[in-house]
Amino acid sequence: KDTFALHEFTSTYFAQRAGMLARWDATAAVQGGDLTVRINRPRLLQVLDNLVRNSLFWMRREGTADGVGAVTVEIVSDGFIVSDNGPGVDPRLEETLFDLFITGKHQEEGGQGLGLFIVRQIVERNKGRIAVESTVGKGTTSLLDFPAAAQPVPA
Question: 23, 37, 120, 145: which is deepest, by most CB within 10 A?
Fold first, then answer.
């Protein structure tokens, strides 16, 4: 496991993904304070990347209310929140979104229903929790808590 600042981690991620964001006509921002975590960095990168890519996919496919896709990561006391202004999650999928082989994507779009299942597995293996709140036509928010991984920020 690695110990690192979550704000810097997510800012670096978005900087490295600037080309992808531009291709998808989307903006990204990191908000909130900072939190130091002790967690496997590559696995957390996998979690963040999957959530962001899902947001971008759905915003591009279904559009956004204002025509500009936006993804925001907010650092909170025990983890982070990933929000978008996309189309929201189909209410029929919301309860099973993190189950194996559940997807709203068509097969030709590459949806296999593995990504969010893996996200949940990684989060839970790090004694964390993930929850989704979504409003059709307004966007989706994924809340990730890692209380066991959170470390006090050095003064």
Answer: 37
